[in-house]
Design goal:
The strands form 4 sheets. The protein has a 6-stranded parallel sheet with strand order 5-2-1-6-7-8, with helices on both faces. Strands 9-10-11 form a 3-stranded antiparallel sheet, covered by helices on one side. 40% of the residues lie in helices and 14% in strands. By secondary structure, it is of the alpha/beta class. Helix 1 (19-29) packs across helix 8 and helix 8 (168-191) crosses helix 9.
């Protein structure tokens, strides 16, 4: 039996691509037994999301399906639908992110499954949500970045609409799904009954732009882009140095005093346009034009030392290779080697008593657990 905080919890995952499998892999790393149900002809589409490929499957698939068991069921077959119901009978959580409308058409929606197991927590991950005019619309992460205005908030003012560099809506929706499932498990302890949990890429995207959306409700003004800078704090952005860029985040007056002294210009703190946070934010361009020539006189490493030693938050702007080689990443041990493989992938971003949950196994081959889970 697996160990971990969720040992003894059984999850059936009808997940593919990213959001559903990510929710499943979090639960698996936390100790749940996750049975991944895949279509017989190729399985999860993410198996082909490469290059690169390792042992026949994409790195993305390995990373987001470690620690799971794979079974194949043709859910267009009445016999296999019954086999799925047999699995659900003893499960605690079901996660599905199939195309909208599919589960109802196949007779495996929440009502059908909770009729089989009233204690089941049925988690659905939608594109645009479980209701509304776009309920049945399919979508991938970029569409939600566009629909929820993220692309108008990212980048410099004169840039075209710009996507974030990672699938942030898929990732956060998977996390929200897990939060909902765990809360429902706690609720079940009190009620004895399962419930339906709905999450969606749309709702996650709206949550991610909440500051801009909340501000708009008050001001009626559409937010403008500020490039690599905060919309409300200054200096709170990326600057050039003599060689490489640096990020400086002096988010209050106390930190700005320390920054000005570290940069050799304590008089900035008395300037009529820079003496407090509101003035600095209102006169951002002046602030940047004042600081930038000074920062260009020394290297990034010099400034990291001077500014960092003064207690002002700052960081190098790393590329992925530099992040991979960083001492901090090595010290935190967040890159974990999958059992039975040399492949290293990013582990869960949390620890219990100083120990990060480790994957119990690597990602499964398609249908590898049919005999164990489904029998003959």
């Amino acid at each position: 039996m697996k160990s971990g905080p969720l040992a003894g919890v059984t999850v059936v995952e009808l997940g593919q691509n990213l959001a559903g499998p990510l929710a499943g892999v979090v639960l698996a790393d936390l100790g749940a037994e996750v049975i991944k149900v895949e279509k017989p002809d190729g399985g999860d589409d993410a198996r082909l999301w490469g290059p690169p490929f390792v042992d026949g499957d994409s790195v993305s698939f390995h990373a987001n399906n470690r620690g799971k068991k794979s079974v194949t069921l043709d859910l267009k077959s009445a016999g296999d639908v019954q086999r799925l119901k047999d699995l659900v009978r003893d499960a605690d959580i079901l996660i599905q992110n199939l195309r909208p409308g599919i589960v109802d058409a196949l007779g495996i929606g929440p009502e059908a499954m909770q009729a089989v197991n009233p204690r089941l927590i049925y988690c659905s991950i939608w594109s645009f949500g479980h209701t509304g005019p776009l309920k049945s619309a399919p979508a991938f992460d970029p569409l939600l970045q566009a629909f929820a205005s993220m692309v108008t908030l990212t980048g410099r003012p004169d840039d075209p609409p710009t996507f974030a560099g990672t699938a942030i809506n898929d990732i956060t929706t998977g996390m929200w799904c897990v939060i909902g499932a765990l809360a429902a498990l706690k609720q079940r302890e009190q009620t004895g009954k399962g419930c339906t949990v709905d999450a969606s890429l749309f709702e996650s995207a709206v949550a991610l732009v909440q500051t801009s959306l909340n501000t708009y409700q008050v001001t009626g003004r559409v937010p403008q882009r500020h490039g690599a800078a905060s919309a409300t704090l200054a200096p709170y952005q990326i600057f050039d140095t003599a060689d490489r860029p640096i990020c400086i985040a002096a988010g209050n007056d106390r930190l700005f005093v320390k920054l000005a002294k570290a940069m050799g210009h304590p008089e900035w703190c008395e300037h009529e346009l820079m003496s407090d946070g509101r003035k600095r934010a209102a006169n951002r361009q002046f602030l940047v034009e004042t600081m930038q020539p000074v920062l260009r006189t020394r290297s990034r490493q010099d400034w990291l030392g001077l500014i960092g030693e003064a207690g002002v938050p700052c960081a190098p702007v790393n590329d992925i290779a530099e992040l991979s080689a960083s001492e901090q990443l090595a010290a935190m041990g967040q890159l974990q080697t999958l059992p039975g493989s040399d492949l290293r992938v990013v582990g869960l971003p949390l620890n219990f008593d100083g120990v990060r949950p480790a994957p119990a196994t690597g990602a499964p081959k398609l249908g590898a657990h049919n005999p164990e889970v489904l029998g003959s």
